[in-house]
Amino acid sequence: MKAKPTGSDQNKVVMGKISRDEYSKLQKYCELKKESVNSVIKRLVTEELEDPVPHMLAGKNIFLYNKHKDNFSWRILLDKEIMVYIEDDLPAESLVQLHESIKKVIDERNTYINKKKDESVPIPSKLVRDRI
Predict the structure, then answer these.
(1) For range 34-61, the mean pLDDT
(2) Statement to judge: residues 68 and 45 lie in one domain
(3) Which of 8, 35, 45, 110 could cross-link with 115 by S-S, CB 3.0 to 4.6 Å?
(4) Does 110 score more than 70 pLDDT?
(5) Is 64 part of any domain?
(6) Which residues is 76 bridged to in the sheet?
(7) pTM for the model
């Protein structure tokens, strides 16, 4: 007959190293939450394991213009029909600069993959390597 596991047999200790700065931030966070470091770490790990968030989510960026403030709002509409509010006060100059930066890196990518036509899409080279 097997002996019933004791508390120490049922629970395991998890450890990880963090920098002093990160630990100071963790202590401040725990003080704000009025929780011990152990209980905060246990809660965060448990929450993540019970309801993990994928590394990437599918959705669509939405930018809205506010005529009264002459600025923009940035939203993301997830495919799960959830609207996420990213920012409500983006100056026009920020979006112009973002647009120029994105255009520059997309042009660089298009040159690298030899894209010449607007309707072309990236094709894995291993599919055509033996045929070109």
Answers:
(1) 90
(2) no
(3) 110
(4) yes
(5) yes
(6) 61, 84
(7) 0.53
Secondary structure (H, E, C), the chain: CCCCCCHHHHCCCCCCCCCHHHHHHHHHHHHHHCCCHHHHHHHHHHHHHHCCCCCCCCEEEEEEEECCCCEEEEEEEECCCCEEEEEEEEEHHHHHHHHHHHHHHHHHHHHHCCCCCCCCCCCCHHHHHHHC
CA 3 to chain centre: 46
Does 71 share its domain with 95? yes
Same domain, 75 and 103: yes
| Cα three-residue angle 12-13-16, rounded to 5 degrees | 140
Domain range spanning residue 44?
A: 18-50
Do residues 22 and 45 share a domain? yes
AA identity, residue 8: S
Place of tokens 């930066």: 101
Number of domains in the chain: 2
